[in-house]
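User: I'm putting together a teaching handout on how multi-component assemblies are represented. Below are the sequence lines for each component of a complex, exactly as they appear in our records. Could you produce the 3D structure of the whole assembly as structure tokens, so the students can see both representations side by side? Please keep the chain order the same as the input.
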Amino acid sequence: MTTIPMPSVSPPEGTPPVKDFTPVPKDLQASQRINRISLTYWQGAVMTLRRNRAAMGGLAFIILVVLVGIIGPILWPAYQKTNLLATLQAPSGKHWLGTDLLGRDTFTRLLWGTRTSLMIGFVAETINLLIGILYGGISGYVGGKTDVVMMRIIDVIVSIPQMIILILLQTVMSNGIGTLIFSLCVTGWAGLARMVRGQVMALRENEYVSAARVLGASRGEILRRHLLPNTVGPILVNYTMSIPGAIGAEAFLSYIGLGIPVPAASWGNMLQEGANQFPGSLWLFFSPAILFALTILAFNLFGDGLRDALDPKMRK
Amino acid sequence: MKKYILGRVVIALVTVFVVITLTFILMRLIPGTPFNTGNTNMDPEALAQLEANYGLDKPILQQYWIYLSNLLHGNFGTSITYTNRSVTEIILRAFPVSLDLGIRAMIFGIAAGLLLGIEAALHHNKFIDRFSTLVAIIGISVPSFVLGTLLQLVLGLWFSGWIKEVFHTDFQLFPLARWESFRYTILPSFVLAMGSIASITRMMRSSMLDVISQDYVKTARSKGLSERAVVWRHEIRNALLPVVTIIGRMVGGLCTGSFVVENLFAIPGLGKYYVNSVTARDYTLTMGLTIFYAIFIVASTLLVDIAYCFVDPRISLTGKRRNRREEKR
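Assistant: Of course. Below is the structure of the complete assembly, with chains in the same order as your input.
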């Protein structure tokens, strides 16, 4: 059986004798002194985040991967160049990560795959973010019957398994980045919309919102100036955590043969090509696999840190 | 409570109906019919005969109606690639295999996840806590197809090769493929369970940490209850509550995972048929299995939600699941 340290209880001491008790002289200046620098919510959040090494490591990695996705393909443009005389070559000085079945350079394809996969993640989740904020904001702020109807629609959308929507749309529509982003956005916004609505509902009852209303602020102004800025924290966390989901969905779909078709490169279809060569040519599988896993890890670490930093209760 | 359950049932029914209708519409959106893809040199008369056979010449609304009533009778249509085999037949044959795999993964996932989560919380910031955090991080970042391939390589190929060299036997402790005896099930179940292990470990750990600092735990301990009673009766029991909710959502994740795992290990389950039907453009099979999956996932989520409602009486009072804590962690 495991043991748990008992909560330490300080030994009962006798109450201090009255004669030893001398009131501290009143020092008005001291009581007014500010001991710590006053920080705004965001300053505090940034400070907490900076102290979190795992989260900062994650952020650094995300920035690195994004830069690689932007700059890499410019420097190494020939991702479709085949060379049938040099197929399935092991990593060497000429081909840093070897070549694939058609003699294409894996390193170059990995750079292009990074661009494709990150683009899908960021674009799809940004669209979801906008739809979610709009839908949730309206639903939460208008309230009443509109809210009930809008939330019932969300209940239904959330219950539809997302993988089924993805597979169904990929089957029916032509495969490619556009279809993939579209199918990620069909139902992907619902979770965020529900969260935004919950936040707006809670904030709506606050005094400063009533004050703004009394002062004659219009509905749109209250929504824009007071309600949405205060939901930014949770929205940001949700956004960060949802991007690996979208990247993972692309990898999964491409892996089972949907998603991004070759000759375009994405992490998913590179993983699939690598798995096809299994157990030979392992670099084909493990170079995208490692990059993929590290990226997902980085997003999760950063998201975790962000959530802790934005939650004042978690702050020490 | 009745009102809550009724509401959930209605939403589940609407969801299934939406999926069915969506599937039907998408099926019609595909240009041509299953028999006329536009580039076949089929005799037009024979084509018309075929289409009439499958009811494709009727007006669209009537087709929809026939489709719905067929579904209600458990008729999901006929597969195109597996000629003369109905989708229902395929489901009946392949679903038990998938269910077997799913249940194994679920039991393993829940057991390992709870154990790791509880131990991590009881030894906060000790080795086991670090270890379970590592497991959770790996489970979340490494997708099942990468983990599966890795294990196939290390345990299936290298380890078996080593055994062969040392013991001169062809016995494989972790076979690479197929679904025959218990040792065939170990790797697939583990790979499929990895995601659940990660999420349950995380949830259980944070939920336990939450409970441990509650006042009633301090009360229990200070009134002299044994450590075992405090941990089991007061901490674990209460910490389990929020974890139960994600078990319902695990079903969807396990289905998605089975698409990959069954292909990777060549297990003749529903997921393998599903993925094959998608790549082979076997529309009727894809659509039929889509609807089956939707019904299955929605129904199991619903069942868990209703069960949860009996476990946690607070729901029937507020009519709302306590989502906040689990979203936070």
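A couple of points students might notice: The domain at 43-74+105-314 of chain A is CATH 1.10.3720.10 (MetI-like fold). The interface with chain B takes residues 1-4, 6-7, 152, 155-156, 159-161, 163-164, 167-172, 195, 244, 248, 251-252, 255-258, 271, 275, 278-279, 282, 285, 289, 292-294, 296-297, 300-301, 307, 311 of chain A (CB under 8 Å).
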